[in-house]
Amino acid sequence: MNPAAADPDAMMRQWNEQIQAKLRQADEMKQVANAVSVTRRSSDGSVSVTVDQNGIVSALDLTDAALRKQPAQLSAEILGAMRTAQAQIAARMQEAMAPIIGDDSATMDALMGGYHERFPEPPPEDPAPPRPSGPVDDDDFGGHNFARDDKGW
């Protein structure tokens, strides 16, 4: 027979110790989680995006080269770097939590559950840069010569 089961005061002390240990573990997990962030750069290094443990952008750095890009290309590079950083949050969080949680896979699975759903791996980068979307040229007739058109004026 378990001696603690025979003594209600000892059983209460044991539960209290377990609860206090779990609260300390939760506090440590919260502190570690708050420190997790991921930074990713665009392929040419002109854009750098940092996201926090919730996937929220906490820093955005643009070089002078980034500011010379077309708006569509710049926004695509910012979003690409952000999505790549977000997709790495789960792995970074798991790394940070492993020393605290240990081999308690149920707790780790519960903690990591939503990260992969919220932040999936981004699609592979398109090697062709996006076409510039500047103002429409009113003098561009798409190669059609209206002067030689049989329809006349």
| Assembly form of the protein | single chain
Give the strand line-up of the largest sheet: 1-2-3
Largest sheet: 3 strands, antiparallel
Structural class: mainly alpha
Characterize the overall form. Answer: elongated
- The tally of strands reads 3
Order of helices and strands: HHEEEHHHH
Instruction: Give the overall average pLDDT.
Output: 83
- Summed up, the helix count is 6
Cα-based radius of gyration, to the nearest Å? 28 Å
Low-confidence region ranges: none
Tell me the span between the first and last alpha carbons: 107 Å
Instruction: Determine the strand fraction and express it as a percent band.
Output: 5-15%
Helical fraction equals 40-55%
List the defining traits of the structure above.
about 150 residues, mainly alpha, 6 helices, 3 strands, YbaB-like_sf, DNA binding, DNA-binding
